Amino acid sequence: MNIEAALLPGTPSSICELYASFAEQAKHRQFGVIEDDIVILDTETTGLSFRENELIEISAARLKGREIVERFDTFIHPSTLIPAEITTLTGITNADVAHAPRAEEAVEKLAAFVQGLPVVAHNAAFDRGFIERVKGGTKVSDVWVDSLALSRIALPRLRSHKLSYMAELFECSAVSHRAHDDVDSLAGVWRVLLCALDALPSGLLKRLAEMHSDVAWAYRPIFSYLAGANPGAPFSLLTARHDVLQASSDEDRRDADELEGLSMPSHNQIEACFSEHGLVSRMYDSFEARPEQLRMATEIRDALEQSTHRVIEAGTGVGKSIAYLVPLAAAARKNGVTLGIATKSNNLTDQLIYHELPKLTKALDGDLRFTALKGFDHYPCLRKLEQLERGGDIHTTKDPADTLTAIAVLYSFACQSPTGDLDSLGIRWKSVRRQDLTVTSRECARHLCPFYPDTCMAHGARRRAAQADLVITNHALLFRNVAADGKILPPIRHWVIDEAHAIEAEARRQWATTISSEDAQTLFETLGNDHVGALSALLHRIAGSDAATLYLGLVSRSVATVGRASQAMAELFEALRTLSQQQRTSSNYDTSDVWISAELRGSSAWQDFVLVATSIIHALEAADKALTSVIDAVSAEIPDAAIDISEPSRRLHEMYLGIKVIIDGTDEHFVYSFQVNKRLRAGGESLSAERLDIGSAFAEHWFPEMKSLIFTSATLSIADSFSHFNQGVGLDKLDAAAYKTLQLASSYNYETHMSVIVAGDMPDPRDRDAYLGKLEIMLVDIHQAMGGSVLTLFTNRRDMEELYERVSPQLAAQGLSLDCQRRTSNVKQLRDSFISNASASLFALKAFWEGFDAAGDTLRCVVIPKLPFASPTDPLSCERNIREDRAWMRYALPDAVLEVKQAAGRLIRTAQDTGVLILADSRLITKAYGKKFLRSLPVDYQQIQSENVGKYLSMWLKR
After folding, report:
1. Are residues 684 and 760 in the same domain?
2. Mean pLDDT of 915-925
3. Does residue 686 sit in the same domain as residue 809?
4. pLDDT at residue number 498
5. Helix, strand or coil for residue 475?
């Protein structure tokens, strides 16, 4: 594997060369006692949960220097059969473990082998959890070193820290998903990690070893030993940042607004890029010309040249990302301007950043600069990092060692990265408080920070964006930039908005005013009192100043008013919960979502709530004024002393204004609501004001600043019409000549690869008992016929969980695996598990309706039990219904059609995929609006009786 390809884009050449040296270093370096009497361990299990699954193999090896001097290997006899997918993954069969010792005996022998020595395991919490679950397991060792977390400190620029990835990269033994072989791999990787740690900047390991000495941290002895063996100059993060940042002579790109228009390649030149021997063919070994892809690229070329907008629906297989990247890159290079791409999903962003754009750059002989740009709080704040490392309070209800690991990862990452965000660093945010290591744009200290602007990672990212040809960001940041009058992003006038079907909802979220109990709690915890938090720190800071008496009086007044405001906010949310219990709600099983209607505002219950809210407004106003007085007074004398209360003070002011707006409720541009989590006795409450008409806001605030906006997705039209999308985003408010629409069919042959079935005899879903009874029978038939790889997409948790309890035992009795998206499920893990097992099936909710790719045999059937209409008591629906006579037809129906199109799109992701879409809602046949859904699908449907669906699938599979 090529080292440069294995590292994150933008890694300096000096760091690439350093990483390339580790494999050879590991063969010869000696580290003394740190690598003597270390035990490397790996396990194989029947599943991922130590509470529900069991050990089936343990392997361990004791190291002395570079040698394995003793080994321990055993199979383990579990109490249940080994799942087929585990046998497929590991090769371990039920016959292998039939005569093996039980777990308790095996772990007892392991403890005798380890003898309390430190244990190194990759993702140690996994192996330790399984071993210590067994009686006597806690006696194995008190010191477990997680090589996965350690690798993120030692090698922060790697794209992946999987053991198999590192073993291949650094020429160690291959990973086979057998414990014995994986121990050999980890033994080799362990020495690479020691070499990489030893190569970190002088003095850094000493700093890390000495921080927060009161916290038990498994890596402290390792860092301390390596630091003692190689003493050097004291570490300076500022110096390290200067060392990693290579001086750039690049200037900011021009603002396209300053140009009369963009000069673009000719149609013939664009066509040549997509020809058999053109630019795109140099990117892919198996390139095939697609007429739809060229048509899209040409249309975008024209939009950029004419400074007009486009709406392009590009079916699966068109290759839309390359269709827009080629003309965008040409425009940027030819005109010296920056162009932008905004996506909804991380999957697409990663595909562009790590695959498509590097290939395009290589095909252009390196002559293309691109960068990803995220919100401020996605980048580490180096000022806060140093504060936390030097003794700042660790705020966590879990293991504080996770915070020390995060600090170490960020120091290492900052020393090797010109810029970069937090999202790929593997930090355990459930244990680590994100706001302790990040800032918002307004919270940034700027000129009062030693890292500003040149060595700051957030401002560095923005500087790189201003010098780039292409900037990739997400919808959320794009719309926050619009709200901030363009102060967040560089002045980009030409954008491709990919996954554009989601932008109206995302803009509504980003432009909403929301006051939540969680945000309030975090705010008041950040401000604190005279003992903890920002106000306490300020008291200590000003104690020795010349005007201490004045300042102490102002701060003490702030402490008192903030305390009263905190108590008042708790009373507000308690009153909100009381109000919720008296209302008819939009219930999605866990949450009450209540529309604040004119009728509600006229009720006595609302008037009681307003009395409480009014006292809260007064308390917040008093705290706001007190904090403002402190900031004004202290900033004049000690400029950096008030930094840490300035941002929470601003948030308190916005909270004060937001509550006033929602309680007043007279701005007709908004729909007002409140939310309460019914599963909690307290917490989960919020007040919201959402903009009703996003299209008008776009037309007024966004479009006038733009030259070209290209909206694209696989699902924008309904029954071949773009009117719903155009109205939603405000294009219908522009002159007809300002935009064009284009519908491009899929490059795949849906007629032969996909079938759509409607079970027309299903009871009406509103007759719940009859409907679920018949659906249960049909789901069992479907799973039996398909033998796995079925995704059933539900619209509500209640139906899903009840049917799972009914269906799962019936399938298990036949050896079929069915999983369910439970409340506690990790969506990413659930997706990965489903994709990796072609025999698995899944019941899932909203997170799987779109943006989920499972090519090949891992997904061959999608079932939609019920059409995904918005709840009639949803606040947005309610507000629309009182303002428009046909609101349901204009909004709820087309939104549901697009969701079904998205779900159908999960089936065919490559030219070889085949699949069946099963629609189990008879309203598609019995209601006139059903034709809207059916005409929007890629192939004609067949109506089949529910009792015959299983038989049809069996025949379909034998075609």
Report:
1. no
2. 96
3. no
4. 96
5. helix
| CA dist., res. 677 & res. 679, Å (int) | 6
Helix (H) or strand (E) holding 754: strand 754-759
Which of 139, 172, 199 terminates a domain? The answer is 199
Domain span holding position 559: 513-694
Looking at 668, 694, 720, which one is the last position of a domain? 694
Which pLDDT does position 318 carry in this prediction? 92
Query: Nearest 10 degrees: CA dihedral of 921, 926, 928, 933?
Result: 20
Q: Are residues 652 and 771 in the same domain?
A: no
- CA 638 from chain center: how many Å? 39
User: Cα separation of 274 and 207, whole Å?
Assistant: 54
Task: Give the pLDDT score at 424.
Answer: 80
As annotated, the active-site residues are 177
The verdict on residue 455 lying in a domain is no
Amino acid identity for residue 891 in this structure: Y
In a domain, 83, yes or no: yes
Whether residue 660 sits in one domain with residue 574: yes
Are residues 30 and 174 located together in one domain of the fold? yes
Q: Does 76 have pLDDT greater than 90?
A: yes
Q: CATH number, domain at 51?
A: 3.30.420.10
One DSSP character per residue, 82-110 reads PPHHHHHHH---HHHHTTSPPHHHHHHHH
pLDDT in tens, 442-479: 778 888 899 998 899 999 899 889 999 999 999 999 99
What DSSP assignment string belongs to 481-541? HHHTTT-SS----EEEETTGGGHHHHHHHHT-EEEEHHHHHHHHHHH--SSSHHHHHHHHH
| 351 phi/psi in degrees, rounded to 5 | -60, -45
Contact 759, 945 (CB under 8 A): yes
Query: What six digits make up the tokens of 767?
Result: 């007759």
pLDDT digits (tens, 9 = 90+) for 152-167: 999 999 999 999 999 9
Which stretches of 699-767 are DSSP H helices? Answer: 723-729, 750-753
State the Cα–Cα distance between residues 459 and 440, nearest whole angstrom: 12
Residue 881 is part of a domain; what is its CATH number?
Answer: 3.40.50.300
| Model pLDDT, residue 815 | 87
Two tokens, residue 495: 């954008």
pLDDT digit string (tens) for 557-587? 999 999 999 999 999 999 999 999 887 655 5
Domain count of the fold of the chain = 3
The token duo for 928 is 């006139």
Structural domain contains residue 952 = yes
Is the residue at 442 inside a domain? no
**ω into residue 453 within 30 of 0, thus cis?**
yes
